[in-house]
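FORM 7B: Structural annotation worksheet

SECTION A. Query
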Amino acid sequence: MAERNQVPLKENGLQDGGRHVVALVLARGGSKGIKLKNIKPLAGLPLLGWVLRAAIDSDMFDSVWVSTDHDEIEKVAKTWGAKVHRRSPEVSKDSSSSVETIQEFLRNNTEVDMVCHIQATSPCLHPSHLQNALKIIMEDGYDSVFSVVRRHEFHWKEVKKGSGEMTKPINLVPALRPRRQDWDGELHENGSFYISRRDLIFKENSLQGGKVAYFEMEPEHSVDIDVDIDWPLAEQRVLRYGYFGRGVSLIFCRVSGCLTDGRVFLSVSGEDMVCVHSRDTTGLRMLQNDGVEVVLLSSRDDPVTQSLSGKLRTMLSCEVVDVGDELLKDVQAVMEQRKLSWKNVAYMGNDTSDATCLNLAGLSGVPADASKEASNAASFACRQAAGMGALREFAEHILQQTEKAKTQMKQDRIDRINF
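SECTION B. Predicted structure
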């Protein structure tokens, strides 16, 4: 699997003194609230994928790591371009703390001088959050920086039932209750990330200490997932406020079942024929015009599809790859040749055999008549059936997401203090 090349911090002018800065996501396999929540699909992507994409696209780290004790989590982490630290059983217990796990990572990676601990359960993290927070610690000489969110909430003292004790206000005077616009609110840790120097983590046995600062994130980006009820709310939030990357540079599309509807017509002369909708070929041209490379996947065992693929190769000036039983291997070979990771790829399929690729791709789509397994793995389900304009529909979705990513990048550059 080709991993995305990490951009060293020293190349963007922030690193001085040869410091080695890494991003580290802790992803234990034994999560209790939601089973294997770190790789459970959220809005079509593994939960872990959202924060890894933001960390890598920030271009601020010498390397991006995932610390895990689980094989499937390791596989997903590498797919999304991260390196993997296999944590020991001693720091994989229910009682193990994040600090203990990070300290073990540091003992095994002695070159690391600074760690940005990112929580996988914060899927609305953007590259700009990490960029601006790292500037605080790198340029202003702080020892630790952590993320917060501003909340306007009034707190009251908790009392035990039957104690007879009365509750009391903690942060307000009821008779002088302020209006929201007249109160600045309070800062709360949102758990998105913690940046700390190596020596502080060992000396203080903590990620917060020394000369400490905070980075304020906006409420719409402060999402945390602990229990099942958080999941649907997080999906709604991430679809609106999540970071969708820099857009895809390549789309894989299965010819049979996506470009065609599966029917084969027999001519008077005995020739097999299939039809392709003009809307679908137009959709592929739209992607090409936007700089997205098109790779059609044709079955080696289907002579009708082979013949059609040859004609499409000429018509669309695109590459056609013959695939067999090892579909994933065939697709990865194309990606490795182009040095692409899954987050840079879109995939459209319709069958059970496509499910793995659909689940891994940065953007994935299925026609309306796709198999249940494929539909469950995809992030976008078309309203149209295969061969009836579904590919055009998915192409328009890709272009919309690309435009959304460009808009987000512009928004990230806004100075919100002086906005």
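SECTION C. Observations
The chain has two domains: 9-172+182-243, 250-406. The domain at 250-406 is CATH 3.40.50.1000 (Rossmann fold).

SECTION D. Sign-off
Analyst initials: ____
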